[in-house]
Design brief:
heterodimer, A: mainly beta, B: mainly beta, 11 strands
Chain lengths: 117, 116
């Protein structure tokens, strides 16, 4: 079973539409972190947000918002009033303790978002 | 401030040839990572360094892949010999913290490798 599932492979919207990217994770740990990264066409992944497992407060940053629900093991990402510059691949990732002094960061397969003018 | 720098940006080689990728992390970042990203997939960790020590290389195919981080700054990842299945984007990342669960990673633009 995948640790991080992003069921939406591709999403296409028209500018100014709202769009939600889904992320479902799986872990047995009680302490873990969840992340969202954006990968524009230039290639580098850019950090957007991290959330620890004890903080279920939703977060809003400008047009971006995140909904973390432990009950459903989901960490969804919503872009309000989407813009063409939001076009990118978005990755959800889970960081958990893999034993010893190591931790493991597992990425989902990503969701390609295309915002059309 | 310069970000993570990788070179080359693209590399095309024939199978069985050697290839090397170079990475210069953000100044002051102790931890350096090499990831491989196959088409349509998320990045997968190959190796993680804390300064010059490889602390997690469990996913590195050691029969053909090698890496080094001399002096704990820049790093080189090598494949010898390359196989068709090695075609992917190789991403380097760095982070400030040491082995933290909540580490924020800074990525380079990657090297896109095509093995023919």
């Amino acid at each position: 079973a995948q640790k991080v599932t992003q069921a939406q492979t591709e999403i296409s919207v028209v500018e100014k539409e709202d769009v939600t990217l889904d992320c479902v994770y799986e872990t047995r740990d009680t302490t873990y972190y969840l992340f969202w990264y954006k990968q524009p066409p230039s290639g580098e992944l850019v950090f957007l947000i991290r959330r620890n497992s004890f903080d279920e407060q939703n977060e809003i940053s400008g047009r971006y918002s995140w909904n973390f629900q432990k009950s459903t093991s989901s960490f969804n990402f919503t872009i309000t009033a989407s813009q063409v510059v939001d076009s990118a691949v978005y990755f959800c990732a889970l960081s958990e303790d893999s034993g010893g002094s190591n931790y493991k960061l597992t990425f989902g397969k990503g969701t390609l978002l295309t915002v059309n003018p | 401030e310069a970000g993570v720098v990788q070179s080359p940006r693209y590399k095309i080689i024939e199978k069985k040839q050697p290839v090397a990728f170079w990475c210069n992390p953000i100044s002051g970042h102790n931890t350096l990572y090499w990831y491989r990203q196959n088409l349509g997939q998320g990045p997968e960790l190959l190796i993680r360094y804390e300064n010059e020590e490889a602390v997690d290389d469990s996913q590195l195919p050691k029969d053909r892949f090698s890496a080094e981080r001399l002096k704990g700054v820049d790093s080189t990842l090598k494949i010898q010999p390359a196989e068709l299945g090695d075609s992917a984007v190789y991403l380097c990342a760095s982070s400030l913290a040491w082995g933290q669960l909540n580490e924020k990673l800074f990525f380079g633009s990657g090297t896109q490798l095509s093995v023919l």
